[in-house]
């Protein structure tokens, strides 16, 4: 089984269902990526900050060497971390990330968060994380504007180092501002998206401007409980929610499949992950069957505007979404 393709605003095709690499442990990452390719995944969503791009690249290289796929069959995504927003740092870090993956280009390169923090060289600490000091106590902002960073993104796009460029964790206001100076409109917007955080107006803005939205953390608090986040521990897990369970039982699907189909049926791309091959296959099977319109609305009505992936929730003193 493979994913259907979405057409980006530059004509490139992107799989609607991909595999997210956040929190995939280094010691299993290469094997997980290889198994995901065998299961049918073609899009892999990585990032500097995940710290596993070398291992992910090893999994890709093994699959290519064994003839399971060709490079052009894959859609590899990575992200520009906050401490590399200064225009002169964008291309060097992109080239390092390409080298880590063992690739000549990314299919999509994304601004990870709309905030610039002080540069930390890869030789000093990599990935650098949110803090400028090794002790993890001090945040320092950089002076790079989002406009300057985007122009540097356009420059690496023009060189073919990234076939498409996009943004992540942008609000509607930041998108509207980006449209005023972008020569290359973002191809995608990646946001936290689940029934507790639906963001319908942001989705509408993206659609009106031809931007494909990728939803991450499709399972809501499930992705954050292991981070000991009180917010995630103190709310009903979506996997156990009565509404999601009832709909899953009606369709003979897992609760994870229902959550993913709720997103894909509404036109979003998704990037679930699992180390279990069986669940990999289940998570890929979320486009060939439909929920009713009433079920979609019922799931959407669970919205609480509840965001888990905010720096303040991790104890990082950056009020990005406040």
From TrEMBL:
<comment type="pathway">
    <text>Carbohydrate metabolism; D-xylose degradation.</text>
</comment>
<comment type="similarity">
    <text>Belongs to the aldo/keto reductase family.</text>
</comment>
<dbReference type="InterPro" id="IPR018170">
    <property type="entry name" value="Aldo/ket_reductase_CS"/>
</dbReference>
<feature type="active site" description="Proton donor">
    <location>
        <position position="50"/>
    </location>
</feature>
<feature type="site" description="Lowers pKa of active site Tyr">
    <location>
        <position position="79"/>
    </location>
</feature>
<keyword id="KW-0119">Carbohydrate metabolism</keyword>
<dbReference type="InterPro" id="IPR023210">
    <property type="entry name" value="NADP_OxRdtase_dom"/>
</dbReference>
<dbReference type="InterPro" id="IPR044487">
    <property type="entry name" value="AKR2D"/>
</dbReference>
<dbReference type="GO" id="GO:0032866">
    <property type="term" value="F:D-xylose reductase (NADPH) activity"/>
</dbReference>
<keyword id="KW-0560">Oxidoreductase</keyword>
<protein>
    <submittedName>
        <fullName>Aldo/keto reductase</fullName>
    </submittedName>
</protein>
<dbReference type="Pfam" id="PF00248">
    <property type="entry name" value="Aldo_ket_red"/>
</dbReference>
<keyword id="KW-0520">NAD</keyword>
<keyword id="KW-0859">Xylose metabolism</keyword>
<dbReference type="GO" id="GO:0042843">
    <property type="term" value="P:D-xylose catabolic process"/>
</dbReference>
<feature type="binding site">
    <location>
        <position position="112"/>
    </location>
    <ligand>
        <name>substrate</name>
    </ligand>
</feature>
<dbReference type="InterPro" id="IPR020471">
    <property type="entry name" value="AKR"/>
</dbReference>
<feature type="domain" description="NADP-dependent oxidoreductase">
    <location>
        <begin position="18"/>
        <end position="303"/>
    </location>
</feature>
<dbReference type="InterPro" id="IPR036812">
    <property type="entry name" value="NAD(P)_OxRdtase_dom_sf"/>
</dbReference>
């Amino acid at each position: 089984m493979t994913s259907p393709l979405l057409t980006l605003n530059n004509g490139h095709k992107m799989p609607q269902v991909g595999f997210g690499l956040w929190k995939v442990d280094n010691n299993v990452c290469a094997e997980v990526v290889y198994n995901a390719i065998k299961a049918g995944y073609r899009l892999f969503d990585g990032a500097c900050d995940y710290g596993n791009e070398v291992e992910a690249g090893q999994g890709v290289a093994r699959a290519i060497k064994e003839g399971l796929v060709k490079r052009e069959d894959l859609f590899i995504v990575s992200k520009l971390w906050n401490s590399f927003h200064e225009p002169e740092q964008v291309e060097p870090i992109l080239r390092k990330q390409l080298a880590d993956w063992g690739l000549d280009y990314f299919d999509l390169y994304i601004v990870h968060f709309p905030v610039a923090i002080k540069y930390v060289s890869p030789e000093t600490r990599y990935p650098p994380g949110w803090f400028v000091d090794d002790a993890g106590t001090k945040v320092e902002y950089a002076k790079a504007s989002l406009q300057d960073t985007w122009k540097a993104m356009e420059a690496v796009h023009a060189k073919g180092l990234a076939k498409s460029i996009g943004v992540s964790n942008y609000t509607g206001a930041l998108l509207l501002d980006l449209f005023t100076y972008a020569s290359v409109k973002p191809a995608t917007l990646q946001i936290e998206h689940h029934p507790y955080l639906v963001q319908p107006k942001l989705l509408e803005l993206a659609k009106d401007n031809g931007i494909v939205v990728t939803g991450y953390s499709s399972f809501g608090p499930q992705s954050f409980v292991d981070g000991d986040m009180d917010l995630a521990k103190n709310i009903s897990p979506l996997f156990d929610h009565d509404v999601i369970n009832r709909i899953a039982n009606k369709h003979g699907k897992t609760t994870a499949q229902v959550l993913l189909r709720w997103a894909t049926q509404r036109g979003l791309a998704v990037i679930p992950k699992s180390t279990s091959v069986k669940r990999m296959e289940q998570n890929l099977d979320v486009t060939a069957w439909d929920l009713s319109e009433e079920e979609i609305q019922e799931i959407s009505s669970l919205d609480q505007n509840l965001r888990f992936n905010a720096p303040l929730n991790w104890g990082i003193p950056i009020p990005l979404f406040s």
